[in-house]
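WARN no homologs supplied; continuing
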Amino acid sequence: MTPKQLSRARVVQALYQWLVSNEDIKGIEEQFLSKKEPYPPYKISKAFFSNLFLNIPKNITLLDEIIKPSLDRSIDELGLTEHAVLYVGTYELKFQPEVPYKVVINEAVELTKLYGADGSYKLVNTVLDKIAREIRSIEINA
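OK structure emitted
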């Protein structure tokens, strides 16, 4: 995994912890930043991790509003892992235009395959594809 890929994985884990526990964001951030990676060549990008992890909760209402119309169910019916992955993907689509939409979707699908329920990557792929068509229409049609 690249530092950014590992950072995204850690953001999903940290968001999951936050969604379950409603603990203090800064405390969770410190916990994840101080965590030693088990395999030495792999390191997170601390700036990338913190940018995602601190800004997603600040924009949670907007992210939910973006996600809801693309779902075929209530947002409350999502598993917490899938919800966390959708937050990361939606945040990147909305606020990080320098990351190509195909990369955002692919990374989200891979994280869902790794951490989510069996087959839930299909839902994440469908939802983020719909969101990308709205938010990144110029990039998609270029």
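Helices lie at 3-21, 25-33, 46-58, 60-67, 80-95, 101-115, 120-135, 137-141.
OK
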